[in-house]
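Deliverable D4.2, example record:
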Amino acid sequence: MSYKEQDPGTGTYYYKKSKRLILQDGSFNVERIGSFGRFRTLYQWLVDTSWSVFFVLTGSVIFLFNLLFALLYLQIGLENISGAMVTHDGYKDLLTAFHFSVQTFSTVGYGALSPVGESASLVSSLEALLGLLISALSTGLLFARFSRPNAKLLFSNFALYTSYKKTDRKSIQFRVANKRSNVLMELEATVILSLEGKRKDGTYFREYFRLPLEVADIHFLPLTWTITHIIDEDSPMKNLSKKDLLEKEAELIILIKAYDDTYRENLYTRHSYHITEFQWEEQFERIFRVNNEGGFTMDVSRIDALKQKESHSE
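Output generated by the structure prediction step:
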């Protein structure tokens, strides 16, 4: 039985030796240049990036925006801001201008500080207008991040090349768990093996094989799911040693589809294991147990836990 696949969309011929196709975070190892729609790309990046990066970047933009206008108010002169006390101390005056800038930017307007004269009124009007625009953009991005459904599947940091259930057969295994407490249903896993080869003319090519799985789909994922490919007579890995897999830059390309019961939508998650991220002849340790109340307790942080090998004394 042949499990060879055509080009899955990542190309089959290359002029130089390539590395992994998909990074561990699920993103493609592709640098895009010369593309259009930079604003759209920036918007997508701001929606996709981590929360910490989003808040640091948003906070920095707002801070620098207010600092810029604070310097403008200082240039105009604090005497053009009613209620501002001019101390001729650079730091204190900047702090006063910054506070006025924040009030104008946020349209709070406590009443203690207000612009006087055409210059200050013009700058404050411009800041209020731009402040509304930045606030609207920040709010829109925040809503887009909250409302965007995305799967948070946690993958083990490595895959295993190990014995299958204490038999002579070998297998490839990796483990996934739901990082969130929401319900994922009707999960389907697709695993493709990518192998690199070299032609006589010095160019490189890749071959792709869909690996049959012991269990390719499950109905629910409340605990962990160990996805297993058994290396039998029909497996494309049956005659490949560890050295062969390293030379061929072997990579497991993984796609998992799931239905999110919270958002009522199908979600997709990509992942990859390069051959350098394999552990050999190890076994995963079970990370859930039955508690005293008869329910289950699972420590998701131990998804990489391995069984301790038995030591035999002479």
